[in-house]
Every structure is written in structure tokens, then in C-alpha cells.
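WARN retry 2 of 3 for item q-0093 after timeout on previous attempt; input resubmitted unchanged.
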Amino acid sequence: MMQMTPTQRSRATTAIRQTASQFMLILMLVIMLVSCSGKRITKANVDQVAEGMSKKQVESILGPPTSLTTQDLVIMKKTTYVYRQGKDTVTIVFKDDKVQSKDSTLSD
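OK item q-0093 returned
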């Protein structure tokens, strides 16, 4: 096994500390992003969603849905986006990729 000089040990220790610091910074940023993204389902945001909007427009306001279902019927395509946040649920129904209706259990 090769012995390290004091200078090499010092450099290795510094590199490990820098890597650990970078990891902690990235971890904190990820946690902040996740916690911020969870607060997009508010009454004010849901009120912005209007009939006729596209899926892309809805997702730019509310983010991606918690779950979705699609029915491809012969005469139309129906997609339902469901957003869940705690006890609250927001359901948005698209007909041919445009908002047809929305329902929410969010309180004021």
C-alpha cells in the first residue's frame, strides 16, 4: 500500500470536503424545488384555469397532474387530470385536449 505525504493527505481531505459541500448544496436545492412545486395547487391558481385551455397551458399553471386517465372514444378524446395535495383534490376534464370542466375541493 502506498503512503501519502502530508501534502497529498491535505489535498485529498480538501477534495473530499469540497465534494461533500457540493453534494449538500445540490441536496438543499432539490429539497427547496420539491417543496416549492408542491404549493402550486392553490385556489388562485385553479381559478386561472379556464374552459378551452390546452393541457400545456394548464400544466404551466398547476404543473403535471398527480394522475391522469385518457379515453379515446370514436367521436372524441377525453382526458382527466387529477391533482392531489393533502386532503384537497382538483379534477380537470379535457375534451379533445381542451379544458371542458374543472372541479375542486379547495377552500378559500
